[in-house]
Amino acid sequence: MKLKKNDFIEIEFTGKSNNEVFDTTNPEEAKSIGLQADVKPVIASIGNEMLLKGLDDELEGKEIGKKYSIHLTPEKAFGPRNPSMIKTIPLRVFTEKNMNPAPGMVFQLDQHLVRIISVSGGRVMADFNNPLAGKEVDYDITIKRKIEDNKEKINALQDFFFRQRFEFELKEKKVIFKDEKIKPVINVFKDKFKEMLGLDFEVAEKKQEKDKKEKKD
Questions:
Q1: Is residue 11 exposed (0-12), middle (13-18) or buried (19+ Cβ within 10 Å)?
Q2: 3-state secondary structure the chain
Q3: How many CA atoms lie within 13 A of 177 on its CB side?
Q4: pLDDT for 73-119, tens place per residue?
Q5: What is the structure's pLDDT at 207?
Q6: What sign does the dihedral 90-92-97-99 (CA atoms) show?
Q7: How are beta strands 174-177 and 106-109 bridged, if at all?
Q8: CA-CA distance, 133 to 137, in Å (whole number)?
Q9: What is the value of pTM for the model shown?
Q10: Looking at beta carbons, which pairs linking 205-214 to residues 24 or more positions away fall under 8 Å?
Q11: Which pLDDT tens digit goes with each residue over 109-159?
């Protein structure tokens, strides 16, 4: 069975650049590069930007249960290096955040990974390019299985888009979330999710609001 857009699959992978591992779902390899996160196979929907785009594009037409080696040029991986992403920043920007920059260090600054090039005269030259920008990368991938269960698919979407899980129930062709606070997020993603799953996403009305609506009707 060949994979197509919107199929949900579970994959194991190891990504390398210059024969050095930079990302993996293999616990032993993860430990060797200092990955502290919970390392496990990834569930993603093909063609929906849940994986690196170049890698995502390569998965269409592949087969369940097989292993593949995929080579990506910089343009299809993390993009070319951009000289305008090298910036000079006042040292106080770092010290105010209790950071002590030195050449070669990598920091998380304003949700960006920043590599320090030099520190001199109260100024820091920092590179905001992705560390893998301009580099060719290789992925070894095993496609473990195709996901058929809708609950597993919905939880995979929650893990990726929400970074946490909320309670829901499946009712006919609807996915109904119970927590009112997720409503603004569902409104943003519901069209995309319907395209991916063929299901309507909504948030259950509070009982008081439902009673008012029924009374008004």
A1: buried
A2: CECCCCCEEEEEEEEEECCEEEEECCHHHHHHCCCCCCCCCEEEECCCCCCCHHHHHHHCCCECCCEEEEEECHHHCCCCCCHHHEEEEEHHHHHCCCCCCCCCCEEEECCEEEEEEEEECCEEEEECCCCCCCCCEEEEEEEEEECCCHHHHHHHHHHHHHCCCCCEEEECCEEEECCHHHHHHHHHHHHHHHHHHCCEEEECCCHHHHHHHHHHC
A3: 20
A4: 999 999 999 999 999 999 999 999 888 999 999 988 777 889 999 99
A5: 59
A6: positive
A7: unpaired
A8: 10
A9: 0.82
A10: 206/180
A11: 777 889 999 999 999 999 999 999 999 999 999 999 999 999 999 999 999
Query: What is the percentage of the chain residues whose pLDDT exceeds 90?
Result: 81
